[in-house]
Every structure is written in structure tokens, then in C-alpha cells.
Design goal:
Elements lengths: L3 E4 L4 E4 L8 E5 L10 H19 L4 E5 L6 H9 L4 H18 L15 H13 L3 E4 L2 E4 L15 H11 L17 E6 L16 E3 L1 H13 L3 E7 L3 H16 L4 E7 L2 E3 L2 E2 L10 H6 L4 H8 L8 E3 L1 H24 L4 H7 L13 H8 L4 H13 L9 H15 L4 H9 L3 H15 L3 H13 L2 E5 L4 E5 L1
Parallel strand pairs: 3-4, 3-9, 9-10, 11-13
Antiparallel strand pairs: 1-2, 5-6, 6-7, 7-8, 11-12, 14-15
Helix pairs in contact: 1-14, 2-3, 4-6, 6-7, 9-10, 12-13, 16-17
The structure holds adenosine monophosphate (AMP) and zinc ion.
């Protein structure tokens, strides 16, 4: 099986291929760290995480870079309002973001570079662009000369006329005084000259004091960690223009192409049918949802309920349904573990070394749906069909069945911790006490006492599964 994804650049479905001589380079535009990320942002990160998980299951060797935008207008404004140093201010929001990622069971990136740690690389890139005639300096700021790059607009399929109006809107010309000096309205800023409101936030450069523009940060960071060509570059659909268009222009003008082989864009999340925005008061964070008793795992599941290229309507009904679906998956995992005579813990630990079996026998349809443009709703449908109609399985096939089920949970990012907790909650305290007495007796090599307790437990409907250094109590 191979993963095929829709490529925004070519408008075609294309296979993601592992390069022979190096790691598969994946770059994701990360968060701007000036506040907590909202569920919309997390739709994008959860989808990116699902791609990473699938690539790993398919034996790809991936270098996954997700940056942190820790200097831009919003972070500078936030630090100033909070009367904090920029680095202290962003450090706090970085930690909040990373904690949220852990709660959603997102795999950590191979590298998570901060924009402020790569200023030199950004300046070097700007110098190359000036030297090659693609950029010019005006009043201490440096701009990219869009007319010098003939492929500009190819990703977002903009024609030159639209480009004028789009970039006027998106670049925020009216509220960024720096940009009045541009030769052409479509030109975008690479280096921003210092303004008094920047306070003590500036870096020295050949063009005077200032700071980088947002777009140059990603071009420099991806080049630093993945080289000239990125195999897969992803982000929310709003980044397609101008951010990704500008990344292509900067990188290809400086280093030659192609900058990216495959572009993947994730459609936006709406909340109860409305666009998410501060003014509508519907920006939902994980903390807000947890206050309403929705677990991060239910949020993750809900974010996978729709196909990533369609807008997803995030509702409380969807969250409730996700919680129920997860419980069914937990219950089935328990049933399967019991049937195959392993503990839930053992099933969980299978996920850490998982590679998708070459020949899937039980959950082939699930993985095929994921490989076909990451069709998560179809895959979930296949999963529940399997749960409802599980075939009779011969004992020699148990290891394969467990492996496929563990791979399936890994692909969805379901780690079974909650199932383990649920399992423990359901074992009554007196039973747990007796089980512990038995374990202690066994450790003390008092096997008769241990066997006697085991029998009593079995008579009351509980069995004990021992592993090397622990045990599990399960209903008979
Ligand atoms: P930002 O922190 O604003 O740079 O956004 C981080 C990521 O979240 C980017 O890839 C955005 O495209 C994405 N994003 C922002 N809003 C939404 C949304 N409502 N739904 C899905 N993705 C979003
Ligand atoms: Zn970016």
C-alpha cells in the first residue's frame, strides 16, 4: 500500500514516495505563539499527525519539521501588552501548545525550530535574493520583487490582475506603513525596518535594525532542515495564498526549484456552522472543551470525522458521538485482547514498534481508505463495519489480528490509556485488593496462597493475567 494525496499544485492525486537516498522531508507551518491554539488550528495539526502516522506505518523514514512562529506582529504586540520580553512571552505559549499537542496524542516533530533561532539563515537568504535581483531595499525594509518570478501565482492559480487585489487585501497595505514604499503593490516584505513600537525587539542586519517578515521564516527554516526540496509541505487552506505562494517564490528564486514536490492544504473548521472568530466568541480551546467534560481524545476523534479537504462543522453533537464511538473502540479492544489472551497493556505496547503488515487480512479496507487521500470518514466506517461483523478468527491468526488492530489504533492516534483507566475503574476495590495480595504472595514465592486467591477470584468472576513484572485483572 502507498499513500496518495491530492496535490494542490498539480491538482492531481499523487503518491508520496520515500526518496532512496535520504529521509522523506515533511514541513508543516506551525503555530504563531501568542495565545492558546484553537480547535481549528488543531484540525490542521491532527490531520498532519495522521499523515505522519500513516507514512511511518508504511515504513517511510520521515524528517518532520514543524516550526514555531515566535516573532511577528501578533507576538510583538502580545509581548508589549503583557510587558514581557518577547522570548518569555512566547516561551509560555510554546509550552501551552506543546502540552495541548501531548493531550491530543500528536507525535513530536523531528525538529521544531523557532523563527528567532534562525535569523541568520533568514538574512543569508535575503542577501541571495538581493544579489540575484529578486529583492530590493527601501528605507531599511527589503521587498521581494514579484514581477521577477515568472511562476508567481501558480499554486493558488491567480492571474496577474487578481494578484493585485488579493495582495492588497492580504498584505494589509492600509495598516502597515512599511509597505507604502514598495515598487509594486504585489511585492511583499522580507525584512521589516525597525519601528519605535517594536521596543527592544530587533536584530541588526545589513539593512539596519529590523526583523524578518513572516514568509521568509518558513523558507529559511525548511531549507535549514530539509534542504532545497521538501517532499511534502502542508498547512491550513488559508496559507495557500499569500504565505505558501511567497515561500515558493523566495525559495525557488534563491535556490532553484522545485521547492516542494507535494502541497497539501487542509480545509477550515467551523463551529456550529459558523466561521470561528474572536468577535463571535466561538474560539474553542482544549481547556474550554475539557471544562465541559469533553476529553482531548474525543476532540481528536471528532477532528478526524470529516474528510480533510471539506470544511468540517464542529458541533457538540459531533463531540458526544465521538465519545460514544471511542468507548466502543475501547470496549472492542478489551474484547479482542481477552480473546487473544493478552492484556490491554500488551495490546497498547504493540503500537510502539508497529509497521503495517505486508498483507493485511482483517483491516485492509480501513488502511486502503486512509491511503486514498486520507479518507478518514471512510476509514472509520470500515472500522465499525469490522467491529460489527468480525469474522471468526483461528488461533494461529491472533498475532496478525492484534498487529493490524494495533496499527489501526496507531493510525488514528488512539493510545488506549483511557481504555486502561476505564478497565481499572470497573474492577471493584475488594477484587483489586485480593489481586494485589495474590501478587505479593507470588513475589514472596508463596505459590499455594497465590493459587488459593486466584481460585477465589475466579469463583467470583475475575481472572488474572500475569506479565513479566505486572498483572491485570479482567472479567472472566
Ligand atoms: P496560525 O497559528 O494562525 O499561524 O495557524 C496555524 C495553523 O492553523 C495554520 O496551518 C492555519 O492554516 C491553521 N488554521 C487556522 N484556522 C483554522 C481553522 N479554522 N480550521 C483549520 N485550520 C486552521
Ligand atoms: Zn509557513
Amino acid at each position: 500500500m502507498r499513500l496518495r494525496l491530492y496535490n494542490t499544485y498539480t491538482r492531481a492525486y499523487e503518491e508520496i514516495q520515500q526518496p532512496k537516498d535520504r529521509k522523506l522531508g515533511v514541513y508543516c507551518c506551525g503555530p504563531t505563539v501568542y495565545g492558546p491554539a484553537h480547535v481549528g488550528n488543531f484540525r490542521t495539526y491532527v490531520i498532519q499527525d495522521s499523515v505522519l502516522r500513516l507514512l511511518k506505518l508504511l515504513s517511510n523514514d520521515v524528517c518532520y519539521v514543524r516550526n514555531l512562529t515566535d516573532v511577528d506582529d501578533k507576538t510583538i504586540r502580545g509581548a508589549r501588552d503583557a510587558q514581557k520580553a518577547l522570548s518569555d512571552y512566547t516561551q509560555h505559549w510554546i509550552e501551552v501548545f506543546q502540552k495541548d499537542c501531548d493531550r491530543l496524542n500528536l507525535l513530536p516533530p523531528t525538529v521544531e525550530p523557532r523563527a528567532t533561532a534562525t535569523i541568520e539563515a533568514q538574512q543569508d537568504l535575503i542577501k541571495i535574493l538581493i544579489q540575484k535581483g529578486h529583492a530590493y531595499e527601501r528605507g531599511g525594509s527589503v521587498y521581494f520583487k514579484v514581477s521577477s518570478f515568472k511562476d508567481y501565482g501558480r499554486l493558488s492559480h491567480l492571474d496577474a490582475r487578481k494578484l493585485e487585489t488579493q495582495s492588497t487585501n492580504s498584505a494589509g497595505r492600509s495598516n502597515d506603513a512599511d509597505e507604502y514604499d514598495r515598487d509594486q503593490v504585489a511585492d511583499f516584505v522580507l525584512w521589516k525596518a525597525y519601528k519605535p513600537e517594536d521596543g527592544d525587539i530587533f536584530w541588526n542586519s545589513p539593512w539596519g535594525k529590523g526583523r524578518p517578515g513572516w514568509h521568509i521564516e518558513c523558507s529559511a527554516m525548511s531549507h535549514e532542515y530539509l534542504g532545497k526540496t521538501v517532499d511534502l509541505h502542508t498547512g491550513g487552506v488559508d496559507l495557500c495564498f499569500p504565505h505558501h505562494e511567497n515561500e515558493i517564490a523566495q525559495s525557488e528564486a534563491a535556490y532553484g526549484g522545485p521547492f516542494v514536490r507535494h502541497w497539501m492544504h487542509i480545509a477550515h473548521l467551523k463551529v456550529e456552522g459558523q466561521k470561528m472568530s474572536k468577535s463571535l466568541g466561538n474560539l474553542l480551546t482544549l481547556d474550554m472543551l475539557q471544562d465541559r467534560q469533553y476529553t482531548p481524545s474525543a476532540v481528536r476523534y471528532a477532528l478526524l470525522a470529516g474528510h480533510y479537504r471539506q470544511p468540517l462543522n464542529f458541533t457538540f453533537d459531533l463531540l458526544k458521538a465521538s465519545q460514544v464511538a471511542l468507548q466502543k473502540i475501547h470496549a472492542f479492544s478489551q474484547k479482542l485482547a481477552q480473546m487473544c489472551n493478552v492484556s490491554l497493556e500488551q495490546l497498547k505496547s504493540l503500537q510502539t514498534t508497529i509497521v503495517l503488515p505486508k498483507e493485511c487480512r482483517f483491516l485492509k479496507a480501513f488502511f486502503e481508505a486512509l491511503c486514498e487521500d486520507l479518507n478518514t470518514p471512510k476509514a472509520l466506517g470500515c472500522l465499525f463495519l469490522f467491529i460489527r461483523k468480525m469474522p471468526t478468527v483461528e488461533v494461529p491468526m491472533f498475532p496478525l489480528l492484534l498487529k493490524e488492530w494495533a496499527a489501526c489504533l496507531y493510525a488514528l492516534g488512539i493510545d488506549l490509556n483511557e481504555a486502561l483507566q476505564e478497565e481499572e475503574v470497573h474492577v471493584p476495590l475488594p477484587v483489586r485488593r485480593m489481586a494485589e495480595q495474590r501478587w505479593q504472595a507470588k513475589l514472596a514465592r508463596d505459590f499455594k496462597a497465590a493459587d488459593d486467591i486466584r481460585k477465589i477470584l475466579e469463583e467470583s468472576g475475575w481472572k488474572i493475567l500475569d506479565s513479566k513484572d505486572s498483572y491485570k485483572v479482567l472479567p472472566l
